[in-house]
Design brief:
Alpha-Beta Plaits, alpha+beta, extended, 28% helix, 9-stranded mixed beta sheet
Length: 269
């Protein structure tokens, strides 16, 4: 089995499922429809192009830095400034970091990995006003989806890791995971490790604006303990301190005195 891992981080994210009219809500984690849309944009598909191959991918996400929900009271006017558009409340996740994984055919995932590194259309985290920070693709893993999400080091920002360890006195971080239920069922986890199951209407039948529709999938919630990445053993300052070369010492050892030569050349001074 092959899994493509994605790092989803940026100042703002917004993953809508239940948005209606003037209230644009966000889920607390990336949706399958949002990720499929990102992949379709990366490979250069337009809204009317088929997405059946992308729908076959299995999906899971790990919340490494949950972020916080903020509200934007949104106003807009037409280009000529004469007409006001309807007011709306738009919700976003600020300072969130997620690890997402998609599992499927190796050749398809290799193409998606390359496309995410050199996308055809701009990538965004749910809405076009939410660009991601790089890197987005973390590459391929030869493992099952659940194992790949469990094994990856903690992706939270350094400031968040330090804040968490200070607040909770060094307690390990238990990250919430949301996966397609069939992925969890295949893993045959003990009953005490299984979590709550809920339906999520985030499986797009098409992105065509003339017939946009979404289906349901069953999502199971699990937790996993994540570890901080290993520190980089390379210390550039250590190399500098180990350098025995001291240019000032060479100057001090130089017995040449240019002023003495001038005095010898002009004895009347």
């Amino acid at each position: 089995m092959t899994v493509l891992l994605l790092r989803l981080a940026g100042p703002l994210q917004s993953w809508g499922v239940k948005s209606r009219f003037t209230v644009r809500a966000t889920e607390l984690a990336p949706t399958k429809s949002g990720i499929i849309g990102m992949l379709a944009a990366a490979v250069g598909r337009r809204r009317t192009d088929p997405i059946e191959d992308l729908l076959s991918l299995r999906f899971g996400v790990r919340k490494d830095q949950p972020g916080r929900v903020i509200r934007d009271f949104h106003t807009a006017r037409t280009l000529d400034g004469k007409t006001s558009m309807p007011l709306s409340d738009r919700y976003y996740l600020a300072d969130a970091v997620f690890l997402a994984g998609i599992e499927g055919d190796t050749a398809l995932l290799e193409g998606l990995d390359e496309a995410l590194r050199h996308p055809f259309f701009p990538l965004y985290l749910g809405r076009r006003s939410c660009p991601p920070t790089h890197p987005v693709s973390l590459g391929l893993r030869e493992a099952g989806l659940l194992d790949a999400l469990r094994a990856e080091p903690w992706l939270a920002a350094q400031w968040f890791q330090q804040w968490f360890h200070r607040k909770y006195r060094g307690r390990p971080f238990d990250a919430e995971m949301l996966l397609d239920q069939d992925v969890v069922q295949e893993a045959a986890l003990p009953a005490q490790e299984r979590g709550a199951v809920r339906g999520s209407r985030d499986v797009p039948a098409s992105f065509d604006p003339r017939r946009r529709d979404y289906g349901f999938r069953q999502v199971e919630q699990l937790t996993t303990r994540v570890s901080a990445p290993e520190p980089d053993p390379h210390d550039p300052m250590a190399e500098l301190s180990a350098d025995a070369h001291d240019p000032m010492a060479e100057l001090a050892a130089d017995d040449h005195d240019p002023m003495a030569e001038l005095e010898e050349a002009n004895p009347c001074s």
